Amino acid sequence: MRPFLPTFAALTLALSACGTVVNTPPTLSLTAPAATVQRTQVTLTGQASDSDGSLQSVTAQVNGKSHAATLNGTAYTVTVPLKAGTNTITLTATDNQGETAAAQAEIALGRSVAAAGSHSGALKGGALYTWGRNNFGQTGLGKTTTLAASADHPVSPTAITAPAPFVALAFNQNQSLAIAEGGALYSWGDDTNGQLGRGTQGRANCGAGTNNCRLDIGKVAGLPAAAQVSAGYSHTLVLAEDGGVWAFGLNSSG
Q1: Which of 16, 67, 118, 190 is the most exposed place for a label (fewest CB within 10 A)?
Q2: Around Cβ 177, how many Cβ atoms within 10 Å?
Q3: Are the CB atoms for 134 and 145 separated by under 8 Å?
Q4: Are 101 and 29 in contact (CB under 8 A)?
Q5: How many other CB atoms are found less than 10 A from the CB of residue 147?
Q6: 179, 85 Cβ separation under 8 angstroms
Q7: Strand pairing report for 55-62 and 85-95
Q8: Could you tell me the end-to-end alpha-carbon distance of the chain, in angstroms, rounded to an integer?
């Protein structure tokens, strides 16, 4: 008796059925990060998997650069650098068939509210609002005012005309500094000890001092893009995006 031999059509149908691959996209989750941080890099964690075991990679895209995550089973870890202001981070899990899953997070670097000795400020949508003491022009009105003698002295949040959209603030006793989109640093107010970083030319006379303040909100020249700024009592420190640290102002104690 001759053995059964399937027809070509039956054989093709059988092979097609056995070889059918139904690919499913990977799954991706992200552990919720802090919305605002005071450090220039963050580590993100979460879970990524693929039902058919073909997960290829997890990457994080932020500020135009891609960063590969480390995979450990279904867990991933990725550290990304941040710029001043809002950073939108997109994570993508990709399998061997090119299917993807995505998750997104927004993390802000820097403070949007600043409280100094007697003046305060806040950012809303890049716009600057200030109020309080203004004897050195530290609220950014372009002049000095006093509570007793000036009708327009800012006793409540007052919109200030700024030369650029600001993303982070740093105030101290009578001086004010802000980082703009793109990392440019601006300063105004008390400059008695050079704490505004704008040299010695063009200073105004505020109160009892001579050439001791800046009434305009001006850019600090000669700095790379700033990631963070910290205002001391009479000196300032700037952390640049490239990792460098810059300092200016009072140095009587080093």
Answers
A1: 16
A2: 27
A3: yes
A4: no
A5: 12
A6: yes
A7: antiparallel
A8: 104
The C-alpha atoms of residue 227 and residue 42 are separated, in whole angstroms, by 14
Contact (Cβ atoms closer than 8 angstroms) between residue 195 and residue 207:
no
pLDDT in tens, 194-204: 999 999 999 99
Predicted local confidence at residue 12, as pLDDT: 35
Q: If we measure between CA atoms, which residue out of 179, 37, 33 comes closest to residue 108?
A: 37
pTM of the model: 0.86
Residue 43 one-letter amino acid: T
Structure tokens at 97: 């068939």
Structure tokens at 17: 């059925």
Q: How far apart are CA 228 and CA 39, in angstroms?
A: 8
As a whole number of angstroms, the distance between CA 49 and CA 29 comes to 9
What SS3 state is found at 216?
strand
CA distance 58 to 12: 38
pLDDT in tens, 159-175: 999 999 999 999 999 99
